[in-house]
Design brief:
Blueprint: H1 3-16, H2 20-28, H3 33-38, H4 51-63
């Protein structure tokens, strides 16, 4: 991972409250930092899951287990 991409992931990790394992799951799912930022629910989208939970569910659906 290049330094610019690493900086983006650090910013996304802080803003979305992701753990290191959730960031690695997102990378394995081929999600970009921009895609993860778009997962943040707006105030009128309270029904949406937070990015950490969505990433975990997508990972479990694709790979069948937690990291």
């Amino acid at each position: 991972m290049n330094t610019e991409n690493s900086k983006l992931w650090k910013r996304v990790k802080k803003k979305c409250g992701l753990t290191d394992s959730e960031v690695s799951m997102a990378i394995k799912l081929n999600l970009t930092p921009e895609k993860v930022m778009k997962m943040i629910p707006a105030k009128n989208e309270q029904w949406k899951d937070v990015p950490a939970l969505r990433i975990r569910r997508l990972y479990e659906k694709k790979f069948g287990h937690d990291a």
